[in-house]
Design a protein that fits this description.
Elements: E1 2-7, H1 19-22, H2 27-37, E2 42-47, H3 51-61, E3 67-71, H4 80-88, E4 93-97, E5 119-122, H5 127-136
Parallel strand pairs: 1-2, 1-3, 3-4, 4-5
Helix pairs in contact: 3-4
């Protein structure tokens, strides 16, 4: 099974940014843990702060991977383009958020991705990525 995690803006700051919300681990450290836990899964990782790069990556992997785990971060609530990219590809997408987006600002309650996602996970911290992987298995 071939899965990719795609993270959006500011998630490169995990471990530094608002640890009370996002925790103190870097995503790279956590990704290595996921690779060790899911040894039978070919797991890739991509992060960008640039909307167009995320769309390009979705187009690149959206017809050849078995699953995409997408944390588009703030773009979730603003990017019609990323939502359209998810709608236009064949590979199923699980939308994920580390925090409980419904316990945060009102603008974070709207997702341009969710309607075309296989499922949505939020509020479970980094554990949500593991749950998303398990949903494909």
């Amino acid at each position: 099974m071939k899965l990719i995690i795609i993270n959006g803006p500011n998630l490169n700051l995990l471990g530094k940014r608002e640890p009370e919300i996002y925790g103190s681990s870097t995503f790279e450290d956590y990704f290595r843990e996921l690779q060790l836990k899911f040894k039978t899964v070919e797991l890739s990782y991509f992060q960008s702060n640039i909307e167009g790069e995320i769309i390009d990556k979705l187009h690149e992997v959206g017809f050849s991977f078995d699953g995409i785990i997408l944390n588009a971060a703030a773009y979730t609530h603003t990017s019609v383009g990323i939502g359209d990219a998810v709608k236009g590809i064949e590979t199923p997408v699980v939308e994920i958020h580390i925090s409980n987006i419904h316990a945060r600002e009102d603008f974070r309650h709207k997702s341009y991705i969710a309607a075309n996602a296989k499922g949505v996970l939020f509020g479970f911290g980094l554990k949500g990525y593991e749950l998303a992987i398990e949903s494909f298995l």
